[in-house]
Amino acid sequence: MDWLKLLDEIDSFVWGPPLLILLVGTGILLTIRLRLLQVVRLPLALRLIFSAKNDGDGDVNSFGALCTALAATVGTGNIIGVATAIYGGGPGALFWMWVAAFFGMATKYAEGLLAVKFRSVDANGEIAGGPMHYIEKGLGMRYRPLAVLFAASGVLVAFFGIGTFPQVNAIVDSVQLAFGVPVPITAGIITLLVALITLGGLQSIANVSTKIVPFMAVFYVATCIGVLAVFADRLPEAMQLVITNAFTGTAATGGFLGATVMMAIRSGVARGVFSNESGLGSAPIAAAAAKTKWPAEQGLISMTGTFIDTIIICTMTGLVLIVTGAWNGGLKGAALTQQAFAAAFPVAGPYVLTVGLVLFAFTTILGWNYYGERCCEYLFGVKGIKPYRWTFIALVAAGAFIKLEAIWLIADIVNGLMALPNLVALLGLSGVVVSETERYLAHLRAEEEEETEAMPSSEAAN
């Protein structure tokens, strides 16, 4: 039996239309029940990133929790994943990435809210939260098998999937290609850095993430804006391509083989979900650790993660690929993105992209280390944390030398299996999400009234 072919078929089934429809459908339902909260409350959510009071129980401040989640979310998918989506579905795929992100913001909001609502404290005095906890405590003990499935899948993804092999491979390959550094040297440096940071736990990971994540996001977006400035005259045409091709498909042109509307939808939605992880249940593990007494407040802050990841960063990558014309050159993956950057900055472009790719991949390793640790703690208690950390570090070291396609297919399958129990919980607990949201909004209205009453009458009149 051809195991690789079998795994590929299972992977295609797991990440096929049923799961993608369930992921987006959950977002649509939450959007309706929350009355377009991701639009109406987005300005408040963006303000809260920097102005949250951090006056509740938790291990890190809200900004640290967001940066830890973004560290894991903003990764190679924002560079290579977008290129893969446009390679498979044409420029129209970017539009469907936006659609997935729009509804995904409501999903990410609900995940963050539930994570804080149903979190607990482990035997080490650290916050324990995430889908496995809101499944068990929110839906009830009879749903514990779903919580165990999620946690087991989370550990496997951290060990063999997003958390290690693809990221390490992306770093060592790109550094060798751009700077000529031998793979063993880069692998050794990565392993040492990961060990130094992750053995310190969440505080250490959050401290590093709050420094690297904002820098890497601004650095990458600024570079993309530079490329778009060089090709500014093509920007209106690029936007038109994105909108029209989303509904008409893309004809074969240059090295591009053509794509139907269905290919654009599937490529855009699948890569959008894979990039921002809305509905997969990973980000709420970090959200649970935030210092807040209002679950809805952290939900709003978590929601901005999807906005930053897809609406801003993925959009920048997509537009760079389209305005430079690289999308129809026949290349795919990292080579496609590299060609686009080189079109604007022939000498510096590939190096700048490499720096961005390395930072994105490295922070993903850090974020997923924490996700896997919390899943491991749920399954085995605090005694499992140290063995988990050392195993993770060993796998990071080995990741540079392992290029087994079967491992990546298994990881992709398990990643999809994380989503299923999480989505069941989100649907089952949607009423809790709505009631907690109403409670928080009532609190905000009461605060506003108190502030108005406290103002001198002349200021209140103005």
UniProtKB/TrEMBL annotation:
<feature type="transmembrane region" description="Helical">
    <location>
        <begin position="238"/>
        <end position="265"/>
    </location>
</feature>
<feature type="transmembrane region" description="Helical">
    <location>
        <begin position="12"/>
        <end position="32"/>
    </location>
</feature>
<keyword id="KW-1003">Cell membrane</keyword>
<feature type="transmembrane region" description="Helical">
    <location>
        <begin position="347"/>
        <end position="371"/>
    </location>
</feature>
<keyword id="KW-0813">Transport</keyword>
<comment type="similarity">
    <text>Belongs to the alanine or glycine:cation symporter (AGCS) (TC 2.A.25) family.</text>
</comment>
<dbReference type="Pfam" id="PF01235">
    <property type="entry name" value="Na_Ala_symp"/>
</dbReference>
<feature type="transmembrane region" description="Helical">
    <location>
        <begin position="212"/>
        <end position="232"/>
    </location>
</feature>
<feature type="transmembrane region" description="Helical">
    <location>
        <begin position="177"/>
        <end position="200"/>
    </location>
</feature>
<keyword id="KW-0812">Transmembrane</keyword>
<feature type="transmembrane region" description="Helical">
    <location>
        <begin position="307"/>
        <end position="327"/>
    </location>
</feature>
<keyword id="KW-0769">Symport</keyword>
<feature type="transmembrane region" description="Helical">
    <location>
        <begin position="93"/>
        <end position="110"/>
    </location>
</feature>
<feature type="transmembrane region" description="Helical">
    <location>
        <begin position="392"/>
        <end position="411"/>
    </location>
</feature>
<dbReference type="GO" id="GO:0005283">
    <property type="term" value="F:amino acid:sodium symporter activity"/>
</dbReference>
<protein>
    <submittedName>
        <fullName>Alanine or glycine:cation symporter, AGCS family</fullName>
    </submittedName>
</protein>
<feature type="transmembrane region" description="Helical">
    <location>
        <begin position="63"/>
        <end position="87"/>
    </location>
</feature>
<keyword id="KW-0472">Membrane</keyword>
<feature type="transmembrane region" description="Helical">
    <location>
        <begin position="146"/>
        <end position="165"/>
    </location>
</feature>
<feature type="transmembrane region" description="Helical">
    <location>
        <begin position="417"/>
        <end position="435"/>
    </location>
</feature>
<keyword id="KW-1133">Transmembrane helix</keyword>
<dbReference type="GO" id="GO:0005886">
    <property type="term" value="C:plasma membrane"/>
</dbReference>
<dbReference type="InterPro" id="IPR001463">
    <property type="entry name" value="Na/Ala_symport"/>
</dbReference>
